[in-house]
Design goal:
The complex is a heterodimer of chains A (296) and B (235). With 296 residues, chain A is mainly alpha-helical. Chain A is 72% helix and 4% strand. Chain A is globular. The chains are: A mainly alpha (296), B alpha/beta (235). Chain B: This is Amino acid/amide ABC transporter ATP-binding protein 2 (HAAT family).
Chain lengths: 296, 235
């Protein structure tokens, strides 16, 4: 029983983080049909904001809010720096500009902060454990689960019930038609980047809360995870991103529990083999996105 | 109301529209006729702001909208129903209509009133309010895009091939509805391949061929013009 509880909590907390990461990526992809390769750096920005504000004596929650705000700001900045100038002209150009922006941010962190890991302030609660039904569990896993439930519900509400969210979904199926109804393209895209930055900021705190430190390359793994989760779930579907995130976490956690010590270092190889199998079975991803798929 | 002078549209090196001029007066229903590839839809898309003009000018009620983007064109009072019948398939009928009123989203009461009026005009849409638009039949989707365009309360409506791919009985109802809209005082530019029906409702018509206007006049004149079939059959 304790084992089962442990397993479920592990899957849900890892899956919650993966789902939020994937959602942040797919919100941009759904509207622009472009992958934002600078997405991982938003997580890095959140981490370094925490590090830089650690000496300020602010309450931890204020620092966390500041970190999320910076991630939102850099999300919008990504749009202005890498996407908006070249968006209408060429897909290849945006691919390269978003890579360039990602590199720029990473190198700025290397140059102005340090290539070495920096400690991020974390409240004591992140390192405490509790016992649930005999299973010893870090409290931060429960925080991750709670945060992902709240955020997934909030994103679902935004996308289903508000005019902005419905306009964003409309723009994701047919951008030109949405514009012909008067929905301003720039507003929709900036909102998508802001929402993406918000999710990256929260995930950044939860993710770095697991590791405890931030390095310039910290965003690479979350970007990869988000990308794989969206590919499994279906690149253009928001529920797909969430399903993909949880499924990837299920695979990872199962392998963690079942692989022997010798094989554990090859875990990613097993994970990716399974991903290949899933894609052979469902090349479109598990959940099909909106019907039309014209790039805008 | 709508004045187009010397308008050209290019796709790369292909010149789809070659310096056409046309006018639509207030309350008038003007048809733009022509075979496939004559440049009708390119003209419509260019007026709507979805394509950039290579030359010429588009003036709506004295306001130059030649270089306007789509979101500015609709705010200027011109709504477009594209031929591709672009409903948002995952959104419900009600959500589609709500987005039609995006530019009036602060005026909730006005939108409700407008919605009620449209529901009497299109009772099917009221019945299917909470259904995803992608599950509607072709005719219902056509009604939905027209109703959605009307939610923006335009003064000029561009209709691109509203009868395309629909059963004859439904086409007839669409044309009845176009007549109702015309009687309500709306200015309409109607693109059609269905010549007889288009001329039956139109005040005036233009005929396009290979990107240029080759004939224009009242509906009567165009109908009696013997060379109409020649333009269609490429003679």
């Amino acid at each position: 029983m304790a084992f089962a509880i442990q397993f479920v909590i592990d899957v849900l907390s890892l899956g919650g983080a993966y789902a939020l990461m994937a959602l942040g990526l797919v919100i941009i992809y759904g509207i622009l049909r472009l992958v934002n390769f600078a997405y991982g750096e938003l997580i890095m920005v959140a981490g370094y904001t925490m590090y830089l504000s650690s000496g300020s004596g602010l309450p931890w929650l204020v620092m966390a809010a500041l970190a999320v705000a910076m991630a939102v700001l850099f999300g919008i900045l990504t749009d202005y720096a890498a996407f908006r100038p070249v968006r209408a002209k060429s897909v290849t150009a945006v691919l390269i500009t978003s890579f360039a922006f990602s590199n720029l941010l990473q190198n700025a962190a290397l140059l102005f902060i340090s290539p070495r890991p920096r400690n991020v302030p974390l409240p004591d609660i992140f390192s405490q454990t509790v016992s649930i039904g005999g299973a010893i569990t870090p409290v931060r896993n429960l925080i991750t689960i709670a945060a992902s439930i709240v955020l997934l519900a909030a994103v679902a509400f935004l996308m289903r019930r508000t005019t902005l969210g419905i306009a964003m979904r409309a723009a994701a199926t047919n951008f030109t038609m949405a514009r012909m109804l008067g929905v301003p393209a720039n507003l929709i895209i900036s909102s998508a980047f802001a929402l993406s930055g918000f999710l990256a900021g929260v995930v950044g705190i939860l993710w770095i809360g697991r590791i405890g430190t931030v390095v310039p390359g910290v965003g690479l793994e979350p970007l990869l995870v988000a990308f794989i989760a969206t590919v499994i779930g279906g690149m253009r579907s928001l529920p797909g991103a969430v399903v993909g995130g949880f499924l990837l976490a299920l695979i990872d956690t199962t392998l963690n529990y079942t692989l022997s010590q010798d094989l554990l270092k090859f875990r990613d190889a097993f994970t990716f083999s399974l991903v290949i199998l899933i894609l052979l079975w469902r090349p479109q991803g598990l959940i099909k996105g909106p019907a039309s798929g014209q790039r805008t | 109301m709508l004045e187009i002078t010397g308008l050209s549209v290019n796709y790369g090196t292909i010149r789809a529209v070659r310096g056409i001029s046309l006018t639509v007066a207030r309350g008038e229903l003007v048809s733009l006729l022509g075979a496939n590839g004559a440049g009708k839809s390119s003209t419509i898309k260019c007026i709507a702001g979805a394509l950039k003009a290579a030359g010429g000018s588009i003036v709506l009620e004295g306001q130059d909208i030649t270089a306007a983007n789509p979101e500015q064109v609709i705010r200027a009072g011109l709504a477009t129903v594209p031929e591709t019948r672009d409903v948002f398939p995952d959104l419900t009928v009600a959500e589609n209509l709500m987005l039609g009123a995006y530019i009036h989203r602060r005026d909730q009461a006005g939108n409700r009133q407008n919605l009620e009026r449209l529901h009497t005009l299109f009772p099917r849409l009221a019945e299917r309010s909470n259904q995803p638009a992608g599950t509607l039949s072709g005719g219902e989707q056509q009604m939905l895009v027209i109703a959605r365009a009307l939610m923006a309360r335009p003064r000029v409506l561009l209709l691109d091939e509203p009868s395309l791919g629909l059963a004859p009985a439904i086409v007839e109802r669409i044309f009845e509805m176009i007549e109702t809209l015309k009687k309500s005082g709306l200015t309409i530019l109607l693109v059609e391949q269905n010549v007889n029906q288009a001329l039956a409702v139109a005040d005036r018509a233009y005929v396009m061929r290979l990107g240029a206007i080759v004939a224009s006049g009242t509906a009567e004149e165009i109908r009696s013009g013997s060379d109409l079939s020649a333009h269609y059959l490429g003679g």
